Prior knowledge:
By secondary structure, this protein is α/β, with parallel strands linked by helices. It has two domains: 117 residues, Elongation Factor Tu (Ef-tu), domain 3 (Beta Barrel); 140 residues, 3-Layer(aba) Sandwich (Rossmann fold). Helices cover 18% and strands 30% of the residues. The chain has a seven-stranded antiparallel beta sheet with strand order 4-3-7-1-2-6-5. A hairpin with a 4-residue loop joins strand 1 and strand 2. Helix 5 runs parallel beside helix 6. The protein is globular, with a radius of gyration of 19 Å. The chain starts with 10 loop residues before the first strand and ends in an 11-residue tail after the last strand. It binds flavin-adenine dinucleotide (FAD) and FE2/S2 (inorganic) cluster (FES). Flavin-adenine dinucleotide binds next to strand 4, strand 6 and helix 2.
Amino acid sequence: MTQERASRKKGSHTATVLSNVQAGECFWKLRFRFEGEAAQAFAGFRPGQFIQFDTSELAIPSIETIPVALRNGARRNVLLRRPFSFSDVTVESNVTTADLLYCIVGPASLRMTTLREGDTASIVGPLGNGFAVREGTRIALLVVGGMGLPPIRCLAKSLSVEHPDITAVAFIGSRTVNALPLEERPAVFEEDLSLSVPTFATLGVPSMVATDDGSAGHRGPVTECLSQWLQENADRPREEIVVYACGPERMLAAVARIANEKDIDCQVSMERRMACGIGLCQSCAIECRLADSDETIYKLCCQDGPVFDAREVVFGTDDA
Ligand SMILES: Cc1cc2nc3c(=O)[nH]c(=O)nc-3n(C[C@H](O)[C@H](O)[C@H](O)COP(=O)(O)OP(=O)(O)OC[C@H]3O[C@@H](n4cnc5c(N)ncnc54)[C@H](O)[C@@H]3O)c2cc1C
Ligand code: FES
């Protein structure tokens, strides 16, 4: 049987901020507390699902703290909610705690940095369909590109708790070492699979880092690490392996191609700008192949995804 991919108790909820701290050069970690009905709704949050966060009422940080490249756009009104994943969800009796790792890229994420302990936030969710765990899976290959880390970290935790029989291995890619969204960094980034990266090691998941500029771990695209693992483990039955990936579309396209060549199941978490997040505005279309046909149709990233079977997605890049 396939694990439930979505919590059905979606709605508009209020969360209380427990903490909001800068956790790396360009990313922050926000921790929320949900109580009552909201706690119940988010207790069912599945890795890969997302929320729509209203930042329209949040303050703008003081101008001198805003990165120069973002100062022009900082005052833009943020009318639309923004989609985010959770990197961790913890349920304790009537309280659900959730962590959101975010990168500062524009007016909404800038405003999020002004949230303080005790503030409240308006959140719609849980939304969309998360990653599925198919019966018979023995090995989960987790592939991360940059800020694709949150849902994959959430999946790694869920696998370690709910499916201890599945061996997970993580491949974490980024442009350069400072862009790695890791809260704790090892003194040395090993080039091979190891338990040196705390984000995954604390879950018992060995990992391997790859950076485009060689500033940490393997020099080159993270997909080279995935291919190497598959080559070294060519004797493992294909039907026991599933690849789960989240990151830039170019990386997802390359991961999908590698998995397809080896006839391995692969699930990709796609990103689109999302105006509504609930299937109304049609702004988040993804071209998908119809099974056993040359025809394609458009599916909605917010409602049919954001996690898709990689075989059905028509990627808009050269790597597809
Ligand atoms: C399902 C889902 C989950 C996400 N989870 C996270 C998360 O956990 N952490 C995180 O930091 N970000 C996440 N994002 C991305 C996040 O929604 C955007 O970074 C957000 O819109 C930033 O808002 P902003 O106003 O700060 O910047 P904006 O002004 O909205 O955007 C700044 C720049 O980023 C680009 N951009 C924004 N959103 C997207 C998108 N969805 N796809 C491609 N380019 C985009 C814009 O074109 C623009 O160049 C997620 C997106 C989706 C669809
Ligand atoms: S975001 Fe509106 S339909 Fe998907």
